Every structure is written in structure tokens, then in C-alpha cells.
Amino acid sequence: MKEARPIAVTLNLDAPAGDWLRLREEIRAAASSLGIDKIGFALADPFLTLKDRLIQRRENGYDCGFEEKDIDKRTHPELLFDAPLSIIAIAVAYPTRLPDPPRSEPGASRGIMARSAWGLDYHTVLRDRLGKLEAYIRERIPEARMESMVDTGALSDRAVAERAGIGFAGKNCSIITPEFGSYVYLGEMITNLPFAPDEPLEDGCGDCTLCLDACPTSAFVKPGVLDANRCLSFLTQSKDEIPDEFKDKMGNRLYGCDTCQIVCPKNKGMNWTHHEELAPDPELVKPLLEPLLTIGNREFKEKFGSGAAAWRGKKPIQRNALLGLGKFRDRKALPLVAQVLAEDPRPDIRATAVWALERMGGPEALEALDRAVLHDSEELVRKRAAESLARLKSE
Question: Most exposed of 67, 139, 363, 373 (fewest Cβ within 10 Å)?
């Protein structure tokens, strides 16, 4: 049998198509050694179908505000990269089960971080993987041009992954891979290299609607269409006060929401522990709620700064901790929540403390709310406290 001809280090952009096919498969075979679980190739053509969807999404007010504002940049790779020919998509699988998880107990209530915030910040991990992939390609093609992006880049990671055959787009808007379910981080690299594209996968959801049915806030307008303003994952990351209709539904979520992935049959039994830097620290991903209310900026950065949940700062997590304490009706935390209402300089945090105190109830809560009605400097907080006070007294 004839031995396969190795790819020459000096392969140039005018090499025969067969050389590019061999290099593509060589890259695919090397992926695991680079810390990449799955790799796919796509053409760098405009994402016109996605563009239509994004325009309609914006017109309907479903945007979350975190995405690139320029829809053309999100859908036209040629606006980001001179003469792009292909896009390489990668996926890295992450853990889903917490070893020896600490449990919430009376007087020791805990919150939960979504699985995407476990371990080292996935942006850091994927940039490392894409950097290794760039170096691998550049060794073989010195004249290659490449530009990598993860999550915060202009392109849609999911649209690229779908086109490159990484997985299919589920009804819950997640990319679902046959091998790893939807528990994968996604990244991509635009190149000037003429790689032949992989075939997209067929839809695998069928008639299943478990994810749509399980969403706590009915955030899915229809299969594949998410109203971010109702999505708990986005709400946990916002810096504003949570709308009243969602406060109780937040539960003890501190960052993100996994509900639509947990119920997905494609994720049954999936748990990936082969990337050490993604291993969760149980005390960080299920932290006690009370200490979060008084944590300082320096301590917050030292404790949570290496994870994905820290990017919005401590304020959203403190607000979410108040909601969790209220959800649990944790009376042990009542004096501290009352202190937040009396002393915290942020009006929206004080307003959230009002909600938590109303849920806890009792004479101490009534006293704290009464003081807020009389003395708080913000009209919004006084109004919320008065409403809560009236409801508690009527009960």
C-alpha cells in the first residue's frame, strides 16, 4: 500500500486541491492533541438566512443587548477579514456534574452557577485552543492569514458551527453535537485558506419540545426563536433590577440557566471531565449566598475573577443572591438583608432587598420596610417598600 504523502511545510495558496483536502484531514486528526474536541470547516460566504432572522429578531425586540450591534458585521465575514475563503469552527466539551456538591441547608442557603461558568473562563480556554490551532496551521502554511474569535466576536458562533457540521441547531437555540450533546463551547477562525466545507448535520430534534415546555419563563417564542428579555440566563447577567414577574422564577440562579439543556434527551448521560482547567470548584459554583452580599471588589475578583461569571462584576450576582435568599425564605439572613436595604448605595439593589424581605416576612421585615418607607432617599425604593409593607400587613 502506498504511503500517504505528507503535507509540505511550504505548502502555498496555489497548491492542488488534493493537498488542501489532505491538510484538512490532518488538522482534523490533530484536533484532540490541540485540546479541541471537534473541528469543522465552512465556506466564508455571507450568512444571509441568519441576517434575515437577526433583522426580524431586532424588530420584535428579542435582542439581549450583549451582541454586536452591526448586523452586517455579524453576517458578512468579508467585512471582518480581507478576502476570506473558509472558516474553521471548533468545539470544546465541558463538565455537567458536580463532584460532592455542597447542599443548601436551613440558614446556609446556596446559589448555583450555570455549567458554562464552571472552571476557568471558557473565553480564555478557547483562545488558547485557537492559538494552538493557528500555530499548527502556520507551521504548514507560513503565508496563512487567520483571525480567531470566541463569543464576543462579531460572527455568530452557533451559525458558524452549524454551517461547519459541528452540530445542528436545537429548538432551544443551542448547537447539539452527536458526540457531546449541547455541552460544548464554540469558537471559530476566519482564514484565507481554500478548505473544502463539511456538510451541515440534519435536524435531530424531531417532534421533541421538552426544552420549550420546561423553560421557566416561556422565553421561546417558537422553536429556535428566543426572546432574550424573558430568558433567565440573560436576566442573571443584566445589571438592572429584575422585572417583578421573573423574580420568583430566578430561584437560586446566580449566573446563567441550564434548564433547557438539562431536559434535552440528547444530553442524557453527558459529562466531560478531560479538560482539567474546566473542572469546577464546588464552593465557587455553589457558593453560600449570605457572604456574597458583603463581598468587596478585591475579594470578588480574587475568588471569581478567573471564571466566566465575573465579566459583569459583582452587582448582578449580589442582586441574584438577594433573590435566592428571598426564594428560600431564609430568615437567618434577614438581618443582613435588612442591612443591605438600609445601607447599600445602589437603589436597584435596595429594591431587590425589599422583595426578599417581603418573602421572608415577620416583625423584623416589617420594621426594616417601614424604615425604608420613611427614610430611603430613592422614590422607587420607598414605593416598593410601601407596597411590600401593605401586602405583609394585609396578610
Answer: 363
Percent of the chain with pLDDT over 70: 97
Return the sign of the alpha-carbon dihedral for residues 220, 222, 226, 229.
negative
| Choice among 151, 198, 248, 348 that is catalytic | 151
Residue that has been written with the C-alpha cell 504548514 in this structure: 140
For the stretch 306-325, pLDDT in tens is: 999 999 999 999 999 999 99
Question: Quick one: cell of 385?
Answer: 417598600
DSSP label at residue 193: S
CB 193 within 8 A of CB 179: no
Residue with cell 443548601: 104
Mean pLDDT of 348-353: 97
CA atoms within a 13 Å half-sphere pointing along the CA-CB vector of 30: 16
Q: How far apart are CA 180 and CA 169, in angstroms?
A: 14
Contacts with 340 (C-beta within 8 Å, 6 or more apart), sequence order:
293, 322, 349, 350, 353
Mean pLDDT of 272-286: 96
Q: How confident is the model at residue 10 (pLDDT cuts 50, 70, 90)?
A: low
Which secondary-structure segment (H or E) carries 52? Answer: helix 48-59
Spatial contact of 349 and 343, defined as CB atoms under 8 Å apart: no
Q: Find the angle CA(353)-CA(354)-CA(355) to the nearest 5 degrees.
A: 90
Is 151 an active-site residue? yes
Q: Is the dihedral of CA 195, 199, 204, 209 positive or negative?
A: positive
The whole-angstrom separation of Cα 335 and Cα 339 is 6
| 165 Ramachandran zone, left/alpha/beta (phi>0; psi -120 to 50) | left
Question: What distance in Å separates the CA atoms of residue 248 and residue 325, rounded to the nearest whole number?
Answer: 11
Q: In what order do the strands lie in the sheet with 38-43?
A: 38-43, 86-93, 184-191, 146-149
